[in-house]
Amino acid sequence: MSAIKKIKIEYEEDNPNASSSSNPGRGLMVSSMMHPPKQEDTKEDIKPHIPKHEDTKEDIKPHIPKQEDTKDDIKPHIENLSCESEREQEYKQRVMSNYQPMHRELYEMNPPTFFVPSFLSAIHDNTREGFKRIITEPSPGILTFQMLKPEFCKMLMDEFKNFEKWAGETGTRIMHPTTMYKYGAILDHFGLEKMLGRLMEDFILPMSTVFFPEVGGAMLDSHHGFIVEYGAGADVYLDFHVDDSEVTLNVCLGEQFSGGELFFRGVRCVKHVNVESELDEIFDYSQVPGRAVLHRGRHRHCAVSTTSGHRVNMLLWCKSSVFREMTKDEQNSPSWCGICRREQN
After folding, report:
1. For the chain, which domains are there?
2. Among candidates 59, 56, 61, 66, which has minimal Cα distance to 33?
3. Which of 144, 161, 141 lies closest to 153, judged by CA?
4. Integer CA distances (angstroms), 320 to 5, 65, 225, 271, 297, in order
5. Residues 6+ apart with CB under 8 A from 307
6. Cα-atom radius of gyration of the chain, to the nearest Å?
7. Is the pTM of this model over 0.70?
8. Helix, strand, coil shares of the chain as percentages rounded to 5?
9. Do the beta carbons of residue 274 and residue 6 sit within 8 Å?
């Protein structure tokens, strides 16, 4: 049996001068404590460990998360965040008014250009049987399938690099996806909001309606889309956490890399977020460019070190304001939580 270290849920207000997110509710971030707390910290809130990743010519040493239990519960710190900040709106408008895209064809949904034929066929059928023909479920609640064409992956990575180059030349500070990342960018900020909205509504919603209805998968109505990068001169690993989403889409875009596996360790409600993993909840996933992973936002996971090369991923946190409103005062044990389900049986 494996134990997972205590997780802290942290909600931070959007701020153009700090890492942030951009749609209503995006300030909510869940960060994990992967390293044992110091003894003097145990009576206070433990601050998240944000690793410093500096550019280096040496090989990156692999970081393997320690999954250790602690005797101290970490209490969630909650702030009232109801809307995108005015400063972030102004930031986004300023960027979109000045940034010149490299690949304008990315900014409008073009399914035949973006997606592999098998994925489009399953979406067109829009049946459980059709989805199961393309999906592999190597562990309960973790769906993997081939999704993006190599040409689309390259275009999106090129667009991201072009945005980084423009930001450097103009002195524009890039707002990073969440407080857990020091690199990457929010895709909505340079004009991809409309395309990502179509991606969620027309392509993710049909699948989440079938496979994740119990967590609001049939009621998705907003998104937070971003790119993250790992390797020398970027983030190297990501600590255990749960996403601020009902359903998460994670697609590796490339490039050449070693390491970077995703460790999944079970789905948990807030009450049980720190409870150790059962053997059947432990799954390690090796990332493949163009291949998607779809999972519940409350599925605990981390990314181990990208030990060589450069890895870029696109993530789409899909949210449901209706589901959150319906369940905000819910006291019953949710059926999707691994521990609650076992207690009910």
Report:
1. 26-35+93-344 (2.60.120.620)
2. 66
3. 161
4. 28, 31, 15, 21, 11
5. 59, 60, 61, 62, 258, 259, 260
6. 19
7. yes
8. 30, 25, 45
9. yes
Give me 242's structure tokens. Answer: 């749960």
pLDDT digits (tens, 9 = 90+) for 13-67: 333 333 333 333 333 333 333 332 333 333 333 233 333 333 333 333 444 454 4
Phi/psi at 146 (5° precision): -75, 135
Tokens of 166: 């423009």
> What count of Cα atoms within 13 Å lies in the side-chain half-sphere of residue 333?
14
Residue with tokens 């030349």: 169
Tokens matching residue 31:
């960060």
Please state, in angstroms and rounded to a whole number, the distance separating the CA atoms of residues 216 and 296: 10
136-139 and 142-146 strand pairing: antiparallel
Q: CA nearest 34: which of 59, 63, 65?
A: 65
How does DSSP assign 100-169, residue by residue? --S-GGGGS--HHHHB-HHHHHHHHH-SHHHHHHH-EEEETTEEEEE-B-HHHHHHHHHHHHHHHHHHHH
The single-letter DSSP state of residue 275 is S
